[in-house]
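Subject: sequence -> structure tokens, single chain

Hey, anyone have a minute? Need the predicted structure for the following. Not urgent.
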Amino acid sequence: MNKELTGRIYDIQGFSVQDGPGVRTTVFLKGCPLHCPWCHSPESQAFRKQLSWMSMRCKGTEACNSRCIKACPKDAIELGETRKDSLTGNDLQMIHVKRDLCDDCGKCTEVCYPEALYLCGEDYTVERLVTRLIREKPFFKGGGGVTISGGECLCQPEFVLEVLRQLKAADINTAIDTTGFVKWEVIESILPYTDLFLYDLKHMDSEKHKAATGVPNELILENAKKIAENGGKMQIRVPVIPMFNHDEENIRKTAEFCAGMKEAVTLVQLLPYHNMGVMKYLRISDKPVMEATPPSDEYMNRLLAIVEEYGLPAQIH
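Reply:
Had a minute. Here:
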């Protein structure tokens, strides 16, 4: 086992039933070449460690004598708004992180005792991660196992490949959650060790795809076809985003593309937009974020019916 090879991870979630078959542990890696404005995990996009501030944990500057403000070498933390303490009703003086000055050094996190300020992103060796995942093997029920996700986990290809090798040697089911926007050689290298790809398809029109995510879709579609041609299995995931890809024409073209890959596609999942990621954006940025009205259940069922017209197993996820 390579003890020196490391990967940067921002979360590990046990007992997951949303990221592949059965009960799983999902490992979330940092870094992504796409910048989707609806991303529900914005902390996954940048590879670097990022300063995050969770306001609900903060006890106010009076409780800690403004330790974080004093600790910052860049003067990037200042007094911000006040809010009511939910228990006492007293006013609490909050802070504000000046993102243009902050360099994510983490000095403030060292003195923040309620851990309202913390660095998002931790480096794991292959040995450390695999040891933990093997220890959780008894909980992988119903065909479960480990899903490696992101961000785009394949932006850390050497680390992911080594982890997958070790998991398969331990007879653990593996899944990769990917945007598909990586070199084919990367996907080809992990194919023998990957039981299932959770594969995102965001839009069938390349120009619209690039306008929204920052990258075109030709490589994504080509890699999906190559996975199918080389015996890989895929669950296709389609985030249904208002004002972007939720129209029936795009869903029909997506279903047609999936049907062309035949038995390689084991399931098409329609994922309705939700705004649960909005608060996460506020932890790491002052920039405005996308907010939209989630599609109705009735509309999602209409889209589901379209996918099923093509003989595809499908569900609203």
